[in-house]
Every structure is written in C-alpha cells, then in structure tokens.
C-alpha cells in the first residue's frame, strides 16, 4: 500500500484501489488532491499486474466536489488561480479514461459536483443504496467541469441528463440504477464487500479481454471528451467571473459556519 496526504493506493489480487482521502469530514477536489489523484491514476497505466481499478472516497463519502474554500480564494483571479484546480480534475478524468483497465467507482454517501463528474467518468459504478449523485453546479451559479456535460447524456440520455442537471439537481441511487447509470447497488454496510466481489469478478477475465473491451466500449469518442473538457473549463471560468458566482460561493461558506 502506498499513500500520501490525499490519495492512497492499495494493490491486491489484480485490483488497485484508489482512495481519495478525506480532508476534514469529506474528500474534496483541490489543486493538491486533484493532481495527486491524476498522478495515482497515471502510475497504474503500465502496471501489468493490475486488471481492474476501483476508485472510492474516504470516511463513508465518495467526494463532495471542489474545495469551496479554495474556490473562494481563487475568486480574485479565476483564470490564474481556479483554472489549475479544474486542470487537476480534468487530468484525472483523462488519465482514468486512458487506463487499459476498467475503472469502477464505488460510491458511498454523496458524489457531488466534481465528485459526481468523477464518478460518472468511470467505466462502471457500484453504489450504496442510500448514495446520492448531486449535480451541485447550479447552486453555485456555474456550469459543469469533469466532463459531466459529455458523459451523463451518454449514460442516461440527453433529455434525462438535462432534467437532472437543470431541474432535479440530484439522482438517488435507486433511480440511477434504474436508468443504467449505476451497474450494481449494495446495502451501505456491504458496499466495500460488494465492490470487491464485483472487481474480483472482472479481474478473472483475461487481461487482453479487459483491455480490448475497454477500448472498444470506451475509447471511440475520447477526442470528443477531451474537447468537451476544454470547453467546460472555459465555460466554468466565465461563470466564475460573475458577481452571482462570488455571492453564491460566499453564501455557501457562511452557511457551513
């Protein structure tokens, strides 16, 4: 097992488990944690012993999304200060998609904002029955990052994706499963066990089968995803320069006090 302050990597029986560690109560995406996760994913690309990758959060939560305090600190100069935070998440998404191994998101608690984008960017999702996928972006007055505007419509359809993003604001695990976003549901106490069993099932496939189907099923549109990530970055930064965004970020932090 290897780890740093932000990400731990555990390897066992052909499965690598990446854990985004909690900073305070929940795992969040900051400049440091986003880049640490991107580096951890990149380190697995040429690991011939690993057939499946599991991505999970710490402390009973998947990921609360962006570090709002860091986003507030970036408000004076979003291009210079907020752009690199988005870049870390986008590098993570690109590196996860570039892995030859299928990636399973194991979602406990909430996957919110960038955390939802991160989960949906994975090849498969196993979720606790009480998990929630929270869009979060609209509440802050911004558009998405992490490729959500690209991956979610391709998972659940364009109309449902528009409804979730602009009207519902969240998906419960049961609905996400019924709509095909979540591959398997588990009781909250059994999520880790169920994810491990599912990963082990996939890991029994020959390595070349996993590699080729990952490419056939997931890589055909990768240039489009990369272009969408660039477009999302630009749109997010435009939103971040508005007074409404600043007001909403500060109100969110005041509410947490």
Automatic annotation (TrEMBL):
Pfam families according to UniProt: ECH_1
GO molecular function: catalytic activity
Gene3D superfamilies: 2-enoyl-CoA Hydratase, Chain A, domain 1
CDD domains per the UniProt record, alphabetical: crotonase-like
Matches recorded under InterPro entries: ClpP/crotonase-like_dom_sf, Enoyl-CoA_hyd/isom_CS, Enoyl-CoA_hydra/iso
UniProt-listed SUPFAM superfamilies: ClpP/crotonase
Recorded family membership: Belongs to the enoyl-CoA hydratase/isomerase family.
Name of this protein: Enoyl-CoA hydratase
């Amino acid at each position: 097992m290897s780890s740093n302050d932000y990400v731990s990597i555990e390897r066992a029986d052909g499965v690598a488990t990446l854990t985004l560690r909690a900073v305070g109560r929940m795992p969040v995406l900051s400049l440091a944690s986003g880049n640490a996760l991107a580096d951890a994913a990149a380190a697995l690309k040429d690991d011939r012993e690993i057939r499946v990758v599991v991505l999970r959060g710490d402390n009973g939560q998947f990921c609360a999304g962006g570090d709002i305090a860091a986003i507030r600190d970036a408000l004076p100069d979003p291009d210079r200060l907020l752009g690199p935070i988005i870049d870390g998440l986008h590098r993570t998404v690109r590196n996860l998609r570039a892995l030859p191994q299928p990636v399973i998101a194991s979602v406990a608690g909430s996957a919110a904002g960038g955390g939802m984008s991160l989960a949906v960017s994975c090849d498969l999702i196993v979720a606790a029955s009480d998990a929630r996928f929270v869009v979060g972006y609209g509440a802050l007055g911004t558009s998405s990052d992490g490729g959500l505007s690209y991956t979610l419509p391709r998972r659940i359809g364009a109309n449902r994706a528009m409804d979730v993003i602009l009207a519902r604001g969240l998906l419960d695990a049961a609905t996400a499963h019924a709509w095909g976003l979540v591959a398997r549901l588990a009781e909250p106490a059994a999520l880790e066990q169920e994810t491990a069993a599912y990963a082990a099932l996939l890991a029994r496939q020959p390595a070349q089968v996993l590699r080729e189907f990952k490419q056939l099923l997931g890589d055909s549109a990768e240039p489009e995803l990369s272009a969408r990530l660039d477009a999302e970055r630009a749109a997010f930064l435009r939103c971040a320069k508005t007074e409404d965004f600043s007001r909403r970020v500060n109100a969110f932090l005041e509410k947490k006090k």
